[in-house]
Structures are given as C-alpha cells and as structure tokens.
C-alpha cells in the first residue's frame, strides 16, 4: 500500500518498507562488522543482535527462472528478504550462525546441469567482487566492445579470487563498452573501456532523412561536425561533414543521428585502465590511468584482455603491501616501475597531452587519440 504522505503508488516504493525486521530494529546502531569467511559477514548491533550476510555472485542479466530460485531461497531462509549490491551480488541475511550455515550449505549445493555453482559465495574483502559493467553489443547503440561477453571471460579467469581473500586489498573491476562510461570505470582498480578508433561513417543518403542535422552538429564535444551539402544522384542534398582530425571517436553524433554509424570491426577494441578507487583509505580517491592503449575485440573469450588482467593482478599480488590498493601500490613504487614489473609496453598513447606541462604525465582523461 502507498506510504504515508504519498498521493499515488507510482514509482518505486520507499526502501524502508523492505528492511528485514532486524535491520529495521537496529538501523543506525551498528557497533562493528567483520568478514568471518570469504562471502560471509557478520554485523553486530549495540543491542547485541547480529546479522549474518551471505553474499553470492550473480549475473547482471538474469532469467526469470533464476530470479524465482533466488526468491525461493530468500523465502526459505530469510523471511522473504534479500538485497542486491551495487556490484550485482545478491546478499541473503539471517540472524543466527546456525541459520547462516544452513543457508550457506544450501547455496553451495545448488548447481547447474554442467556442475558449476549457481550461487558462488564470495566477493568480499581483499578479493575480487563482481564486475560492474554496462550494456554491450545487444543493448546499446555506441558500444566498441561487448559487456557481458568480456566480463564473463574475465570473471572465469579470476574466479578463484572471488572466493578467496588472498590479495593485498580489494580489487574492483569494471567494464564500460564505450567512453561514455556509464559503468564507474574511471575509479576502479582495473577498468576496461571499449574504444572506437575511427570517425563515424557518413551515410549521405540518410542523413537528411533520419537526422536533425543541427542536433548532430550540436552533439559533438569537439566541434568536428558541421552541416554541408553533397551531390547525390545528381541532386544537392543536406548532409554532414566531419573534420576527422578533431574527432575523438566518442559516438555522441551517432546517438543523435543514426546515419553516422561508428562501430567498426577493425577499429574497435578495449583499453585497460588501472589504479582508480573511491576509497579514501591510505590515500585520496583517484582516477584510473590507461596502461594498455588498445586490445582488439577477440570474441568470444577475449584471451589477450583476460590474460593481461590476470597478469596485472598477479604482479600486484606478489609485490604490493597488505592493504595497498593497486593504485596506491603503483604510486608508491612509481608508475615507471609498474610498467617494468608488469612488462606492459609504455607508448605515447599513454600520455595525455604533450603540449601542456600540467598534463605532461600519464594519461588520466578519456579522450583517447590515435
Ligand atoms: Fe552504451 Fe557506452 Fe554505456 Fe556501453 S558504456 S552501455 S555503449 S553508453
Ligand atoms: Fe564528434 Fe564524437 Fe562524432 Fe567524433 S564521434 S564527430 S568527436 S561527436
């Protein structure tokens, strides 16, 4: 029923209605929490009440049958309550250690036909949590790489670290399939960004039919788009011209004008960024920096991308001090040493801008130029 003070029930209900009773009773009165094993946390309240949380990895795109099973588990163990984390993990909460063990064992027993775990427990602390990602080839129109595909391939490669906490500190991985980056990539320990490397193609037969040309002109952040007239079948038609040397391959104009497709099998691929974080422990939050300027799309398993990420994690794991995030470690040893240790090639693509001493440094922006 609508909450008090609301005149309709349109839109999301107030989240407070969905608190498990123990959370509602102790809201704002938590003493401490700890991770008692990978994927299992306990929160202790001033009242002495406890909440045991079991976190499981989940796909961001789920089938109805999978969601039904999640709800069935919540009904069976948690009084119908569950929550999704910002990384699309699912958290089940119970009030006693015995209930937590029964829940954990139930989750571990649920497998797909091939034998792999349906509800892997993990994603906490100094390990790898679920990968935040964007839409990919199927669901958005400007992607330069897929989202679910490479994310699945990366997660398969680093899955052991989802279930353990052997790393020096949390490693948060994100993927955005274009430089619009609707996926928090700029502040993740490891970020994958899809990039285009060629300007949009111009389909003059359709620009005047499909597009508001002034909108396409206004959409370009670098003023590379301008209106023009071209000769088509003996007639002058209104169209668009692009100054290629100004283009940063962002695809904004394609968003406004479907006659400017930008996807390209050869030009598109991925960038790897590292060292970002939102935490202020040890050092201030920081943006990720580009460390690999281009990796081609190698569907369906993206071997170069996944191997490179796995390698960066291993080198970080062997060399960083406890509690040091990837970016903290790279800054302590120096980025030059980061490239030496990882063996990644340092190229001019990794430098922001050669002209301005303020940016005469490692690339931090997303305006990739090739
Ligand atoms: Fe679309 Fe870009 Fe977001 Fe991917 S990152 S979903 S291509 S806007
Ligand atoms: Fe401008 Fe971006 Fe289109 Fe290039 S891709 S012309 S920079 S809007």
Topology, number of strands: 12
Strand content: 15-25%
Proportion in helices? 25-40%
What composes the largest sheet? 5 strands, antiparallel
Average per-residue pLDDT, rounded, comes to 91
Distance between the termini: 56 Å
The number of helical segments is 10
Decide which structural class fits the backbone.
alpha+beta
Query: Per the principal axes of the C-alpha atoms, what is the gross shape?
Result: globular
Q: Taking strands numbered 1, 2, ... along the chain, how are they ordered across the largest sheet? A: 1-2-3-5-4
Unreliably modeled segments? 356-361, 366-370
What is bound: which ligands? Answer: iron/sulfur cluster
Rg measurement, Å: 24 Å
What sequence of helices (H) and strands (E) makes up the elements? HEEEHEEHEHEEHHEEHEEHHH
Description:
The chain has about 375 residues and is an alpha+beta fold. About 25% of the residues lie in helices and about 20% in strands. It contains ten helices and twelve strands. It has a five-stranded antiparallel β-sheet with strand order 1-2-3-5-4. Strands 6-7-8-11-12 form a five-stranded mixed β-sheet, covered by helices on one side. Strands 9-10 form a two-stranded antiparallel ribbon. Helix 4 runs parallel beside helix 8 and helix 9 packs across helix 10. It is globular and about 80 Å long. The C terminus is likely disordered. Bound molecules: iron/sulfur cluster (2 copies).
